[in-house]
Backbone:
């Protein structure tokens, strides 16, 4: 399911009374299309006279980029409500998901049969459901054993990978492309060398609409056709 503001508000009110004794004050709720988080508590902060932080102006955000099982949506809402409880009460924790967060999380999971977690890894079904139009830099590599693979780096590491892959002994050839094929959305963009093995036929099909890249000194550009 994809949550609505009305749904989030209803669950917030329900869980606030049930698990937080109605102590959480109402706050703005927003939907987002973020791919880096499922839920988020945004806030402002200012230094106190004692050198700590005072948190205020909270905003509750839930990403609707992909369809999620309803239980995961509920647990995401609860995850962010724990953050909101800690920040709004100006409670100092040992880390973003420190001892206080984990204690509250474990109490709710045990008492109410929830499955709140510290973090959430996208399932294969969720990754496959992500068809948002997005640009990817992809390097097709041929290994010395004749097998093929691909590397999908973050944009900021493009020049590093371009040079580094040439120094890997087991890589015989590399070709760079820019693609908007949604298939590549399912792969995390890496900052350290990681290759995904594919067949040559699969790679050619995936890159059929991609544009080849060339490098001239400190410039990487789309090759002229």
Residues:
């Amino acid at each position: 399911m994809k949550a609505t503001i009305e749904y989030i508000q209803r669950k917030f009110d329900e869980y606030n009374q049930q698990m937080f004794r109605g102590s959480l004050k109402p706050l703005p709720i927003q939907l987002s299309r973020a791919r880096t988080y499922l839920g988020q508590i945004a806030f402002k902060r200012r230094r106190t006279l004692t050198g700590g932080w005072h948190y205020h102006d909270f905003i509750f955000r839930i990403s609707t980029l992909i369809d999620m099982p309803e239980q995961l949506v509920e647990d995401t809402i609860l995850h962010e409500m724990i953050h909101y409880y800690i920040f709004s009460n100006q409670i100092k924790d040992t880390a973003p998901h420190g001892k206080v967060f984990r204690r509250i999380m474990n109490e709710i999971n045990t008492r109410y049969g929830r499955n709140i977690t510290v973090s959430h890894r996208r399932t294969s079904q969720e990754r496959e459901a992500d068809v948002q139009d997005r640009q990817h830099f992809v390097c097709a590599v041929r290994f010395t054993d004749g097998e093929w693979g691909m590397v999908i780096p973050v944009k900021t590491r493009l020049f590093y990978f371009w040079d580094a892959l040439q120094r890997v002994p087991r890589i015989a050839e590399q070709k760079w492309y820019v693609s908007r094929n949604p298939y590549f959305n399912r792969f995390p963009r890496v900052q350290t060398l990681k290759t995904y093995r594919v067949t040559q036929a699969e790679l050619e099909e995936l890159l059929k609409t991609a544009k080849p890249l060339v490098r001239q000194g400190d410039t990487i550009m789309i090759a002229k056709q």
